[in-house]
Fold:
Amino acid sequence: MLETLGNLGAGFSVALSPPILFYAFVGCVIGTLVGVLPGVGPLAGISLLLPATFGLDATRAIVMLAGIYYGAMYGGSTTSILMRIPGEAASVMTCIDGYAMARKGRAGAALAIAAVGSYVAGTGSIVGLMALAPPLATFALRFGPPEYTALYVLGLLVLAYMSSGSMVKSLAMAALGLLLGMVGIDQMTGYFRYAYGVVELGDGLGVVPVAVGLFGVAEILASAGQPAPPEVIKPRMRELLPTRQEWRESGWPIARGTVLGFLIGILPGSAHIIASFVSYAVEKRWSRHPEQFGHGAVAGVAGPESANNSATSGAMVPMLALGVPSGPIPAVMLAAIMVHGVAPGPLLIQQQPQLFWGFIASMYVGNVMLLILNLPLVGLFVNILRVPYPYLYPAILIFATLGVYAVNNSVVDVWIMLVTGLLGWLLRKLDFETAPVVLGVVLAPLLELSLRQSLAMSDGHYGIFVQRPIAATLLAAGAALVLLNLYSFVRRGLDWRAKLALAEKGEAQ
Amino acid sequence: MTTDRVAGIGLALFALIILEESWRLRLPLGTMAMPGPAYVPALLAGALVVSGVLIAAQGARAPRLGAVGWGEWRHAVAILAVCAFIALGLERLGYRLTMSLACAFLLVGIERKSLVTALVVAASIAVGTHYLFDTLLRVQLPRGAFGL
Structure:
């Protein structure tokens, strides 16, 4: 403990040095802008700025990129709450209740709860990262393909479970996303699948062009021609303070979101997105007033916003302790430090203490900076959204295209963005949710690979999924969700039957 | 036709195309114990066909397709055409020229802004983003045949 505190003190001496403070600030500002601008997510933002870090040393580079990552999580809530446009994919859930709160005149309170929740979760999860990284990383090391398969199945079941609309529609969208995620070279056999001769599709459909298309371009298509452009609700400074009741309602969701987000963040996948989805589902399930969800529930903002911020720190655990990126964003960040000759892996903490502890300390500092940027200065960022829409959307379209193109320097990604933009617009028109499609695209290659690896390990016996304790526990959790769903369905069925019986009784009388 | 019926049929057709493509590419299906490269896609396509049929079957009460409101379709087609132009022109014409033309078309052709304003805004966005990302941040953007 004393050693950890000593290391942290040394880390603060690095993090509070003017150059590191400067790059943390630049990262936080850019990250907030990336989060605020719809269609430009943290992956696109980090990918765009990766070449810019080549001239910096490893510590400055990773501090700036991390600032963009968690800055985007903070900033993403702004457009979600004020415009119902998710600044990035992890803010999709915040749109639902955040915007509903804004419509009720509680925009300032929603922004404050999102920012404070993000701050608490960000800071709390860094403590977790610092204290629990070694044992948790060891635990995650025990995950083999069967555990990952069970985890991804659980993720999809959670998705179906949390569906507020038609469950069939939600599952159909997840299946569509999983099918889109199958495009490209089969990782087990090398077969080229569903690429129609386009070599660039060998690596599959990128998450960035699909997400930007489904959320960013689809939003532009839906709103550009409307007689009244999307309304930007303008919060006032005095409205920023939530009421005592709102603070009370947000306390536990923030705490749960912090723990949940951190734990999910450690595991592979687009953790910050999954964490916000799962947190929303948990809050809705645990709430005494689930009917308020979708109509401005404070917990629907506090939980997901805390979870997605906490997940960013969680994602750093395998990246820093093992040198294993848990998703595309940590992978890009890892690439940034490898460019500087720093070898990632378990020895990183011993060999590069300045980098590791400086980075940890800079995350504390960064979270304070972001709280300042996102509360008193929220009006400044919102001004970007007050530019007349006919001028704003061409600029967003160009930023989105630039971000999508710059990830791989590939025009094919721009085409993917175009097609998924059209798909997203049509799905919105037909009243389908597009978020499960993105989750499906993220999970598809991981799920398929881990399933087939598991079966290869067990000579084709499906018993491997129940013989291993972690996999069995995860699947049991999934089964419990299915049973809960069935229970709700049966109860609804009984209600329906009871109503029918009453109607029949009425007719008889 | 209702929205759900159109969507259900569309999803089922998409799934059938995937199944047909798996067959056309002769992707091995494998077995339950040893799934091949077509196994999981075939399972998912099957699930999507079932979902599509269910959605279509239950879709009688959904709103009619025409009632959804397609007033923005002209804007949508124009924006998609601009995206296609960007995809085609980016590496041929270069970033600055492509983006200037795309942005100017949106502002003049779609939003009916004055030509001078549109040209100034379009050129500012294209040159500004190029300077920020290509020059300052060293993100290599395509210059095309004209070096733009």
Remarks:
- The first helix of chain B runs from residue 3 to 24.
